[in-house]
Amino acid sequence: MSEQRRHRVRLEISREAARLFWAQGVDGTSGDQIAEAVGLSTRTIWRHFRSKESCAEPIIAQSVEWELATLRSWPPHRSLEEHFATEAKRLASEIGTQGQADAGLGVKMMRLADTEPALRTAWLMACDQVEHELAAVIATRLGLEHDDLQVRLHAAAASAALRILNEYVGAGLLDGTDPRKLGDENFAFIADAVRTATGGAVGDPVDIAEVPAESGEGTADRLAF
Amino acid sequence: MSEQRRHRVRLEISREAARLFWAQGVDGTSGDQIAEAVGLSTRTIWRHFRSKESCAEPIIAQSVEWELATLRSWPPHRSLEEHFATEAKRLASEIGTQGQADAGLGVKMMRLADTEPALRTAWLMACDQVEHELAAVIATRLGLEHDDLQVRLHAAAASAALRILNEYVGAGLLDGTDPRKLGDENFAFIADAVRTATGGAVGDPVDIAEVPAESGEGTADRLAF
DNA sequence: TGCCAATGTGGCACTAGGTGAAAATTGTGG
DNA sequence: CCACAATTTTCACCTAGTGCCACATTGGCA
After folding, report:
1. Mean pLDDT by 10 residues, chain B (225 residues)
2. Which domains does chain B have, with CATH numbers?
3. For labelling alongside B171, which of A111, A177, B52, B104 has CA 20 to 30 A away?
4. Closest nt to B27 (CA→C1')?
């Protein structure tokens, strides 16, 4: 089965699972129900997902995917707010009704995660992945290794800030905030949150030329071992 | 059953479970084995823990408990490194062999969490709780509400930094670092990491008198909704 | 001391999540 | 239409976890 095809099937299952989880809770939803809803046998569900809760992962992962993609394509010479703003504009024109529905489900799963530990896991794991990818991005921007302690600290703090903002915005949307209110000034707020969380090290444009000169400056020489 | 007694039983089960998890993996350990190791019936284990993996929670929670307790008792007029240093000294004189063994098990569970998703959950959940308690601490230090967006951002970033440092130090200890090398200069490093993650807002002494004047300054006026 | 009530524990049957392996179905090139 | 591989289904089976009732232990009280 092609990787793409597999991804689509998983996503399809995930949609139905998320819908059922939201409608009747995780405990109140059985594997059989998910299978019936998506029109596959139960066994096939377990072939695609190791557990019931993990059925929600693709829809959650997809809701952070654009953020991840945006961070991956962040050119060194641009500021974070600039890049977010242009990418958001591009995304807005590309996203279809399916994408909007998925985003809605993603937000609902985020909300469910507040009360369903099994889903909170999935959400935290998704954020965990953001953290790792962000470490790579930060490492290249600062000219350090991706497992440098300072890089890991910055990545963890920044992705934690992004998580909080995601939860905040998501909660707002579920409570009836008009999505059109999400304007450019919010990207400035997000970028500043990242700047604050990283002590100003991440968020501004970096000059390619000066990066090598700074390399090593941020490493954890002071930690005794 | 008294709350204290219940806590002790859970901890006892957790010790055996952690030992078995470390020795033979989570999947390789059955509920029956844990029950036998601790001398209780399997049924009683499930009365105390909702799942196999959650048996590791108390030992993990305990390993962040001293950190939590230290943060809770952080007086406004002291810097973070000062407070950590004195509390660590006090702790070192109080901790017994049992406490040391538990700390060792806690570090091992942290390490296992790298490969065992079920345990990573427990670890992230423990960190999640640190984040919440830290929010309360930060709120009082800054004179803001504990659910203020700025407070949540600082708490998330700071606790993420603490998590990374925990993982880093834990990994070091498991790889043979001498525990005695954990001196005062490390507390300065930790405190600086927290300072960086919070844009300098958390870590230094705060003057009680000036707190009310600053209240409201950090709120998220700029986010559009 | 002896009784009683509350509460923790054990045993056992049972549900549900999840897997292994072979049969059945679907898809695909000749 | 056939041969063949890839996927799905069917079915037996395993283990984590629950409901229920009987039993044991504890602690209060006369």
Report:
1. 84 94 92 93 94 93 92 94 93 88 93 86 87 95 94 97 94 82 83 96 83 45 47
2. 3-55 (1.10.10.60), 58-214 (1.10.357.10)
3. B52
4. D15
